[in-house]
Amino acid sequence: MERILEGQVAVVTGGAGGLGRTIMEALAAKGAKVVSIDLQDSGDTVESVISAGGEALGLSADLTDEAQVEKAFEGIIGQYGQIDILINNAGLYQVERKPFWDIGLEEWEKLLTVNIRSVFLCSKAASKSMRDAKRGRIVNITSDCISFGMPNLMHYVAAKTAVVGMTRSMARELGSYGVCVNAIAPGLLSTQSALDTIGEEVMKQVVSEQCIEKPIMAEDVAHSVVYLCSEAGNLITGQTLFVNGGMNNSGV
To answer: What domain range includes position 96?
Structure first.
């Protein structure tokens, strides 16, 4: 297996979860040293990467707290001396679906804070190393729901749409430093938690509406992350890549 990311340091937020773990494993398989920053314990993910022959570290931090984020990134720089890749994967998405007029302000603020502030704080902290090195990659995980306005999840759609706007602005501001910033918008991932939430029949219906009628797996997203972080993505920036089997279009 070609280790196209050999010697690079990749930070993945939300690495304790299913998608974050898969992304970390994929980056490590390509030679990157991977670090998870998560509110939850990332021990299982770290162990999985190490057992496969990779190098990994797990840090605990509240990614909405600026002081904790700064401390975590300072620790990574202290240990590895650099940050080459940042994957903003952490987010809050398991919320009750309801009409927007029934969403309370506290619930609205919580979801936007977790899904937007974490991207801002982590990108801000990681970009210093990238600007100094005149190279780097930032990949923000959004959702394909931004293209069709999923009903009864207005706060989630609003947050993920904001991430796309942030991606474009960061790409403009970091381009002169050689840093590429992109977003990936997955469709409905075929995970056990998704099946438990929507049921097998709904999942089958969603898959049947895709151009390619194949369940979307976390590995499909992880492969796209690796592509954008590799030299193949040197001139790709400010873009949103939909990984959804052609369920809907980017709007371009």
So the answer is: 9-243
Active site residue 177: no
Q: How many domains does the chain have?
A: 1
What confidence tens digit (pLDDT) does each residue in 131-145 have? Answer: 999 999 999 999 998
> Is residue 163 a contact partner of residue 115, using CB atoms and an 8 Å limit?
yes
Instruction: Note whether residue 57 is domain-resident.
Output: yes
The SS3 call for residue 70 is helix
CA 5, CA 128: separation in Å to the nearest integer? 20
- Contact status, residue 243 vs residue 224, Cβ threshold 8 Å: yes
Catalytic residue among 80, 93, 156, 177: 156
| DSSP strands (E only) in 64-164 | 85-88, 136-141
Q: Are 229 and 139 in contact (CB under 8 A)?
A: yes
Q: Which residues of the chain have pLDDT under 70?
A: 1, 197, 250-252
Domain of residue 230, CATH code:
3.40.50.720
